[in-house]
Amino acid sequence: QVRLVESGGGLVQAGGSLKLSCAASGRTLSSNFMAWFRQAPGKEREFVARIGRTDGSTYYSESVKGRFTISRDNAENTAYLQMNSLKPEDTAAYYCAAGMYDSVYSSWGQGTQVTVSS
Description:
With about 120 residues, the protein is mostly beta strands. It has no helices and 11 strands. Strands 2, 4, 5, 6, 9, 10 and 11 form a 7-stranded mixed beta sheet that branches. Strands 1-3-8-7 form a 4-stranded antiparallel beta sheet, with no helix packed on it. Strand 4 and strand 5 form a beta hairpin. The radius of gyration is 13 Å and the shape is globular.
């Protein structure tokens, strides 16, 4: 099992940027697909982005495409989510996830709060 710890959340004005980090321990990240999800109060958790295990292929939800970038540094055992042009509707708790198979995530972090003010 991979233990994941997110960091980098905070309060930012609309149009600003934040970079989230997801540090892994317990097993190397290089063997895992990595993804970011988010959950706003009163809403279901939604997929944000994912990065492939070996080829680094990326996939984004339509709501963040062109504004967010997911990346990984296997040497540092860390995944990232660069968030630009933030909007108030991006306000949510953001969670990273890892899994051996695409779209099947067995390890989850505790979440980091992102709040975007208008």
